[in-house]
Amino acid sequence: SFQDCPRYSKALVLLTVSGGGFLAYSGAKSFFGPDSSLQDDRKRVIVLGTGWAGTTFLKNLDSTQYDVKVISPRNYFAFTPLLPSVTVGTVEARSIVEPIRNIIKKKLGNVGFLEAECYEIDAKNKKVHCRSTQKTGLEGKEEFIVDYDYLVVATGARANTFNTPGVEEHTHFLKEIEDAQNIRRNVIDCFERANLPNLSDEERKNNLHFVVVGGGPTGVEFAAELHDFLEEDLSRLYPQVKDFVKITLVEAADHILNMFDKRITAFAEEKFQRDGIDVKLGSMVVKVNDKAISTKERSTGLVQHIPYGMVVWSTGIGTRPFITNFMKKIGQGNRRVLATDEWLRVEGEDCDGIYALGDCATINQRKVMDDIAAIFKKADKDNSGTLTVKKLQEVMEDICERYPQVKLYLKNKRMKNIVALLEESKGDDNKESKEFDIERVKTALSAVDSQMKNLPPTAQVAAQQGQYLAKCFNRMKECDQNPEGPLRIRDEGRHRFHPFRYRHLGQFAPLGGEQTAAQLPGDLVSIGHSSQWLWYSVYASKQVSWRNRLLVISDWGKRFVHGRDSSRL
Ligand code: FAD
């Protein structure tokens, strides 16, 4: 445990399959094997996943202290924020991936990689069961088991279809590099089909109807990229059919980009309207077949069948099946997402030494609410049950700093109770000394519980968690050797490691036409061309290697000079 070193001294397993055995199922010996454990006392860490969380953990881990194995079906890291750009060729797929072995090569100590997927976690016996994703050549030797001391589970999430019939079969997801490449090919397919001589105008129109389901950042960015591609490149190359093209964005809620500031939401909706992108708000997709998508209007119940050429499904994420099975085994069967505490330790039976981070897990909000209650308790020093406005404001600032979602909800006035309480004091001459009943504030804040939900499933959260966990791991040995610990953590009840705290660094929503909306720290909102340049600089600087940085910048340059490549490769 991060709270007490002796528990930490147990094995560390990263949800990468490291360690254990490259056993053929028959019981071959472990990867970490008895020999290596005799040679030194380094703990075996298995990291499952080579995405944002797993890779950031790996990059920041002092690998000389552990025996590390990374297990993932993907032998590369992918810079997902640029995936929508790959769908239309603004950047090339290979420019945004970095081979995981390039990263491992730079690590000191014993670090290895196995290209396989974990299909079962045996927490009781500290083993992960894995299967190679190679299609041929292994003849019955695909499966193996790896032992761990510490397991880091960073396997991300899968696209969520909400069990809508026909979605798996007929729509495109946008989660992986392959998805983006398939979409790119399919867009061109639609144009080449629509351009064939024997089609009626109606058929051309249907083939060139692009439907995007989901008005979150990914759906909106894809719709914007597609619109730019059509306007800037395809309309020149397919002049005969350009007037048949239509993009529809379907969103079940009342607005797109719900998690952004209201000004950004409004700007995006207006811009899409100007661009001719049909935004269907308050519409749920109820069925998809090979020719049409069926939507139901929430307010009227009206069902419409809309013919399409291509549908991209981007409605959020769901839990991977092997994680759901694992949750059942450890007593989390009644939850939807794997829960951890604020030290990213998985809660449940036999979960000692198992950590989960990124999109595959969530920090248990019960703890967050306890934390908020503790902040109020601390503020109410004299136990009077009341707080002055000034103190209340300080407390709210503290809470907002720790939990940026609260800040956003307050700002958007979605937490009406609290906003009303804070505004009650406005214009009041005695506002400094006016007192509020803490219980009243807490009742209002309990709305946070249902509204705040979890940390957003973003690369920013995953990367910060990976960095945090690596720092804790790097200090574990020091803690073991010095159980008394530094002064700061000797007191009873204090934690040896700080709990994970998310720092929101802002968020972008590219809207096409070289315009981006940016919600920056300090609640600054910037929309337009200048934010687009900020977006270019941030995303260039965030690339994981200089190779990626140069490739991405050169792709942007090529696109400015020559336009995007419309070959169907
Ligand atoms: P992932 O990055 O998904 O990595 C999961 C890893 O686990 C992968 O390597 C996968 O192969 C591996 N894996 C899967 N199953 C197994 C298994 N059974 N065993 C072992 N390994 C397994 N976030 C932002 O902050 N800003 C953005 O602009 C942004 N844009 C996005 C655009 C798109 C199109 C998408 C899809 C996402 C975007 N995100 C963005 C979200 C961000 O990509 C995710 O939040 C982030 O990838 C989560 O990181 P992760 O490490 O948890 O999961």
From TrEMBL:
Molecular function GO labels: calcium ion binding; NADH dehydrogenase (quinone) (non-electrogenic) activity
Subcellular compartments: Mitochondrion inner membrane
UniProt entry keywords in alphabetical sequence: FAD, Flavoprotein, Membrane, Mitochondrion, Mitochondrion inner membrane, NAD, Oxidoreductase, Transit peptide
Enzyme class: oxidoreductase
InterPro entries (UniProt xref): EF-hand-dom_pair, EF_hand_dom, FAD/NAD-bd_sf, FAD/NAD-binding_dom, NDH-2, NDH2-like_C
Protein name, as recorded: NADH:ubiquinone reductase (non-electrogenic)
One Gene Ontology cellular component annotation held by this UniProt entry: mitochondrial inner membrane
Organism: Aquilegia coerulea
Superkingdom as given in the UniProt entry: Eukaryota
Keyword Transmembrane helix: no
A Pfam family this chain is assigned to: Pyr_redox_2
Membrane topology summary: Peripheral membrane protein
Annotated catalysed reactions: a quinone + NADH + H(+) = a quinol + NAD(+); a ubiquinone + NADH + H(+) = a ubiquinol + NAD(+)
The protein's Enzyme Commission number: 1.6.5.9
Gene3D superfamilies attached to this UniProt entry: 3.50.50.100
Domain EF-hand: 367-402
Protein family membership: Belongs to the NADH dehydrogenase family.
